[in-house]
């Protein structure tokens, strides 16, 4: 990853450019306030574990310092939020404020340590920067982890990974600048974080800034390319937010290409002055969905199948955790046959998302994501309900997850000329757990549920197990969707080819995380040098080949997404992980380390024939509330390349 900072610090360039905090501080701030610059960038640099463990904030500071700024461009920086800074000048025990301008980098203010995940901390910094370093055009850039609409950004490592939620961000900004829907006070707000290009973020900043630059997907740790985009601004300070936003996007993608992290990246530029029509279209879209569900709750399952097939971000699987963020445009497009208002959403997105870049495995991104309750977690939904844009989808998810609406929700549907809520059917209301499978004359197993499956299921796949009866063990090898589905009749056939994923010939657990017509994405849990990661693996249907995109550590309990996409390096010690339980007992499956081997230049992911032994397959049914039911098993005996399927 990014290591240019090492040479800079070893040569003493950064340290030599710093002034001590004291008398110089007054000179710096006083002079800056006297003359308004063309541009000021206020950089909220919350280092977090990204800095403590990898020095990535230091790396981006070093990138910035490669740029010689003109006299009319200032970068005001607040550092904090990390237990340790990987340089000799930033003090982790304080909040420090720096100015980088034509005179170099200087420390201009210090404050006692405080959580950078608190609105008051952000507001104090913004007020300081505005008062001392005003400009004709102002950008505010957040640097840290991100967690999407619910969890926000700026997770402070020193304070339990406390983060700024959208309402906290809005409170801080609106205490410093007067919001205006027609004359936004800021030129640009940017998130060099994961998952913050959402319709909810756009809504939060629509009366505060003209433009938003952010990523729908998780970002790799190389992040924005500061020397390139700040270099462009230094060369042309007359550019506006739209021009700068496009430069940031292009620079980011170029930086990802340099280090090989571009394949599933996204970054978009949104004109927030045009977000109003999108929010209106989004509300109409949600109201139509809610009406359809109130008339027939089977709509929840049909809409869920569209959401599952839509490009979504941050993982959204049991193995990786859930962000519950999905591309708004892709979901609208896939549901356009059910909801006529979907086209208005697509038109409005096309109008306000001015520019975007993305990798070959993020081709469906339309620039802004929205909330969808993939995991059916009511607590997570309640968090979204407090900060999310619009109203209709909040009632949609409330009805879906709880089967009821509060008084305000009932008033809302009354305005839609609806007066009752039919009972929601799901997997808890049918007896499909342990449903028997059949095997046809061709040795293909199938599950028959009937037409009711179309009204209840959000998706269906299978889990594969290795069975060792002699030692009373079962190993769960993962999940996939290699099936043929007849939704009209509710009959589902396995299309299993008796092969499974492997790394350098070592059978691997893999979990399907996204399926499309062009490619499937999988999460593969492993240990890399003893640390837990999920390999991001793709199967490309066009090339009929597998590839490893990198490794992430998933979503933690705070909702924070891992920003570091770690690429495998020669010499890494890789350990595959399966999940083990008793074959005859009722114990839960527990992680089990399988094979350990060393990564080489030729390490790859591929399919392999199942080794000789006994296996079982269970059909896995899921509804829109993330309830699961599991069929009875079909068993495979593999011996010398011959496979026999049996059901009991």
UniProtKB/TrEMBL annotation:
Residue ranges of coiled coil: none
Signal peptide: 1-22
Record flagged with keyword Signal: yes
Pfam families: Peptidase_C11
Keyword annotations of the record: Signal
The UniProt record lists the keyword Signal: yes
Annotated Gene3D superfamilies: 3.40.50.11970
InterPro entries hit by this protein: Peptidase_C11
Protein name (database record): Clostripain
């Amino acid at each position: 990853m990014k290591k240019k900072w090492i040479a800079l610090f070893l040569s003493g360039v950064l340290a030599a450019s710093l002034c001590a905090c004291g008398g110089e501080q007054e000179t710096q701030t006083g002079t800056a306030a006297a003359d308004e610059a063309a541009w000021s960038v206020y950089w909220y640099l919350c280092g977090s574990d990204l800095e403590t463990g990898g020095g990535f904030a230091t790396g981006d500071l070093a990138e910035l310092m490669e740029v010689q700024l003109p006299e009319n461009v200032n970068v005001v920086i607040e550092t904090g939020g990390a237990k340790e800074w990987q340089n000799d000048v930033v003090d982790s025990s304080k909040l420090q404020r720096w100015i980088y301008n034509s005179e170099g980098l200087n420390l201009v203010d210090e404050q006692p340590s405080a959580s950078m995940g608190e609105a008051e901390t952000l507001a104090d910094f913004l007020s300081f920067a505005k008062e001392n370093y005003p400009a004709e055009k102002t950008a505010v850039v957040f640097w840290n982890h991100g967690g999407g609409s619910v969890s926000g950004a700026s997770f402070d490592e020193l304070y339990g990974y406390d983060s700024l939620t959208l309402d906290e961000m809005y409170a801080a900004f609106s205490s410093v600048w007067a919001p205006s829907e027609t004359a936004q006070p800021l030129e640009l707000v940017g998130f060099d974080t994961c998952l913050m290009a959402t319709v909810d973020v756009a809504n939060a900043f629509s009366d505060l800034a003209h433009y938003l630059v952010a990523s729908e997907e998780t970002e790799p740790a190389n992040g924005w390319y500061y020397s390139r985009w700040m270099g462009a601004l230094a060369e042309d300070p007359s550019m506006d937010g739209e021009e700068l936003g496009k430069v940031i996007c292009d620079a980011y993608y170029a930086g990802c290409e340099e280090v090989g992290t571009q394949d599933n990246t996204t970054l978009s530029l949104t004109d927030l002055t045009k977000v109003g029509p999108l929010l209106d279209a989004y509300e109409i879209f949600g109201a139509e969905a809610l009406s359809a569900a109130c008339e027939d709750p089977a709509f929840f399952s049909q809409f869920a199948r569209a959401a599952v097939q839509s490009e979504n971000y941050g993982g959204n699987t049991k193995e990786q955790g859930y962000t519950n963020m999905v591309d708004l445009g892709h979901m609208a497009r896939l549901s356009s046959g059910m909801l006529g208002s979907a086209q208005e959403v697509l038109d409005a997105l096309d109008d306000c998302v001015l520019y975007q870049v993305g990798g070959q495995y993020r081709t469906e991104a339309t620039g802004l994501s929205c909330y969808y309750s993939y995991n059916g977690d009511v607590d997570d939904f309640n968090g979204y309900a407090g900060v999310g844009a619009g109203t209709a989808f909040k009632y949609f998810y409330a009805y879906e997850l709880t089967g009821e609406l509060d008084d305000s929700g009932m008033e809302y549907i009354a305005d839609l000329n609806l007066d009752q809520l039919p009972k929601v059917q799901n997997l808890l209301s049918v007896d499909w757990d342990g449903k028997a499978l059949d095997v046809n004359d061709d040795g293909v197993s199938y599950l028959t549920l009937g037409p009711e499956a179309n009204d209840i299921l959000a998706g269906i796949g299978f889990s594969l197990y290795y069975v060792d009866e002699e030692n009373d063990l079962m190993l769960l090898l993962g999940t996939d969707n290699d099936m043929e589905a007849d939704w009209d009749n509710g009959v589902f056939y396995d299309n299993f080819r008796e092969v499974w994923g492997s790394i350098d010939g070592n059978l691997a657990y893999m979990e399907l995380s996204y399926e499309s017509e062009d490619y499937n994405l999988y999460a593969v849990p492993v240990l890399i040098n003893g640390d837990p990661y999920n390999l991001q693996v793709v199967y490309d249907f066009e090339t009929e080949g597998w590839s490893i995109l990198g490794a992430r550590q998933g979503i933690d309990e705070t909702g924070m997404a891992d920003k570091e996409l770690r690429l495998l390096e020669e010499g890494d010690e890789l350990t595959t992980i399966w999940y083990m339980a008793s074959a005859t007992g009722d114990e839960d499956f527990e992680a089990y380390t399988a094979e350990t081997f060393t990564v080489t230049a030729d390490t790859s992911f591929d399919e392999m024939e199942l080794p000789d032994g006994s296996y079982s397959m269970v059909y896995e049914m899921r509804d829109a509330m993330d309830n699961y039911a599991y069929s009875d098993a079909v068993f495979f005996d593999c011996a010398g390349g011959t496979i026999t399927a049996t059901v009991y």
